[in-house]
């Protein structure tokens, strides 16, 4: 399991963009036609911003993530989600510095696949098909297609040596520097380790399929097909038997066809439906687990929770803030813990004293007695905000005043939050991150 390096992201964390090429008109066409339906506009905008903004800096200039937050008007949690999608689809590689006390991210930008490579990649084309449907898929494929060379023609192109003469010189040396170049994406980010080839080779003993047929391209295709169609080593053996010639090796196009046919036969479905992991609907057990976490906050000291949030290095101001809330309000421990984590998330790891105290006083007036009640108030508020965005403002009773902490105009220190109308925290990055961080601590 990979470490979640995005936990190190802070507004003042430095980053470098490594982009040895510029996007061309063809790149933009492929991004708009093929990648946009898969990534959605906000994620693609983050990719384009990293590309275009880098042109205004010298190569490998150190920059701060606060710049991204300000330019795109998003919190870091939203950028982290976008980054995951861009990594998964193969448009960005992310590196972190191995030096001690050096918080530095390096984002290597890869150019998009060509239209031909995209449509012939089983994972990318299948994902696009699932997002836009057969009709639009066919339209895009037709729009981006290009006819083959005419038949019955002969190549009469002249060679270099037929046109140019070579003059020897003692002064010339081949350059050793790195130059601008097009580093192209290879598609969905999968690893060879995602499929157990040792087990497959064991299954293939005694068959006509020689191990030498498995070059890197074939192995990568097998990995993608196994992920796409949920195939194990035995399934792949049966598919390979129908797509391999003992003299010519493995036919990659037939391998794709046989894998799709095998899936349709085994699962009685025409195509697998690929969706984003974050789009998965939360089930009852997941919701119960989330609420179990919220309930557990009732039995934790706010000082202990503050230590967990601040990695056992809270500032004197943080400690004084928690002490003041305990001493000057009647809030229970669970309510205070939800308050601390809520502010900690929307303020990107900070606990502004005036802002936090205002919420504490409003929650005290509201009479929240438990972590569950405080948590539900956040969910209800986000649902109300979502209705207002859709043009259906919630009804306010005469004389009712909106609490200070809900007024984004007055809460100047608060980062804008993308509120959601969903009932659980599973698909809410802010609240889910709060849950994940608690479990780690």
Any chance you could write out the topology, listing elements then pairs?
Elements: E1 14-18, H1 25-39, H2 41-54, E2 63-64, H3 65-72, H4 76-88, E3 92-96, E4 104-109, H5 115-120, H6 122-144, H7 160-163, H8 197-203, H9 216-229, H10 233-241, E5 244-245, E6 249-250, H11 252-267, H12 284-296, H13 302-309, H14 316-328, H15 333-346, H16 353-366, H17 371-389, H18 429-440
Parallel strand pairs: 1-4
Antiparallel strand pairs: 1-2, 3-4, 5-6
Pfam family, one: WHD_DnaB
InterPro entries: DnaB/C_C, WHD_DnaB
Biased composition (Basic and acidic residues): 395-415, 424-441
How does this model look, in words?
The protein is mostly helical and 441 residues long. It has 3 domains: 5-113, Arc Repressor Mutant, subunit A (Orthogonal Bundle); 190-280; 284-440, no CATH class. Helices cover 50% and strands 5% of the residues. It has helices at residues 25-39, 41-54, 65-72, 76-88, 115-120, 122-144, 160-163, 197-203, 216-229, 233-241, 252-267, 284-296, 302-309, 316-328, 333-346, 353-366, 371-389, 429-440; strands at residues 14-18, 63-64, 92-96, 104-109, 244-245, 249-250. It has a 4-stranded mixed beta sheet. β5 and β6 form a beta hairpin. The longest helix has 23 residues, at 122-144. It is globular and about 90 Å long. The two termini are 18 Å apart. 24% of the residues are buried. Residues 1-5, 392-402 and 408-423 have low confidence and may be disordered. Residues 313-377 form the DnaB/C C-terminal domain. Belongs to the DnaB/DnaD family. Pfam families: DnaB_2 (PF07261), WHD_DnaB (PF25888). Residues 384-441 are annotated as: Disordered.
């Amino acid at each position: 399991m990979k470490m979640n390096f995005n936990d190190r992201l802070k507004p003042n964390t430095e980053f470098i963009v490594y982009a040895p090429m510029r996007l061309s008109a063809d790149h933009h066409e492929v991004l708009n036609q093929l990648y946009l339906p898969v990534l959605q506009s906000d994620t693609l905008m983050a990719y384009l911003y990293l590309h275009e903004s880098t042109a205004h800096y010298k190569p490998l200039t150190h920059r701060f993530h606060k710049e991204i937050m300000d330019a795109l008007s998003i919190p870091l949690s939203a950028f982290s989600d976008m980054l995951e999608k861009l990594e998964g689809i193969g448009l960005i590689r992310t590196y972190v510095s191995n030096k001690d006390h050096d918080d530095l991210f390096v984002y290597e930008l890869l150019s998009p696949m060509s239209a031909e490579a995209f449509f012939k990649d089983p994972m990318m084309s299948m994902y696009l098909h699932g997002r836009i449907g057969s009709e639009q898929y066919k339209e895009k494929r037709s729009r981006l297609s290009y006819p083959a060379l005419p038949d019955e023609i002969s190549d009469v192109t002249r060679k270099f040596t037929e046109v140019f003469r070579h003059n020897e010189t003692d002064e010339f040396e081949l350059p050793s520097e790195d130059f601008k170049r097009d580093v192209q994406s290879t598609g969905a980010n999968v690893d060879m380790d995602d499929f157990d080839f040792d087990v497959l080779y064991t299954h293939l003993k005694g068959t006509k399929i020689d191990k030498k047929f498995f070059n890197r391209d074939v192995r990568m295709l097998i990995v993608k097909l196994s992920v796409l169609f949920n195939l194990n080593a035995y399934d792949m053996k049966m598919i390979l038997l129908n797509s391999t010639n003992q003299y010519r090796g493995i036919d990659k196009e037939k391998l794709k066809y046989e894998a799709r046919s095998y899936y349709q036969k085994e699962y009685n479905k025409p195509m697998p439906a690929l969706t984003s992991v974050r789009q998965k609907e939360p089930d009852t057990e997941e919701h119960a687990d989330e609420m179990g976490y919220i309930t557990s906050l009732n039995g934790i000291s706010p000082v202990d929770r503050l230590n967990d949030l601040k990695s056992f290095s809270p500032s004197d101001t943080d400690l004084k803030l928690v002490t003041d809330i305990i001493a000057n309000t009647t809030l229970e421990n669970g309510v205070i813990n939800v308050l601390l984590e809520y502010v900690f998330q929307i303020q990107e790891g900070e606990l502004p004293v005036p802002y936090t105290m205002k919420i504490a006083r409003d929650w005290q007036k509201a009479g929240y007695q438990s972590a569950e009640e405080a948590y539900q108030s956040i969910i209800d508020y986000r649902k109300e905000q979502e209705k207002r965005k859709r043009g259906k403002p919630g009804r306010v009773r005469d004389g009712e005043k909106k609490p200070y902490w809900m007024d984004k105009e007055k809460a100047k220190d608060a980062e804008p939050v993308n509120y959601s109308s969903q009932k659980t925290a599973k698909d809410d990055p802010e609240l889910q991150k709060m849950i994940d961080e608690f479990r780690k601590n």
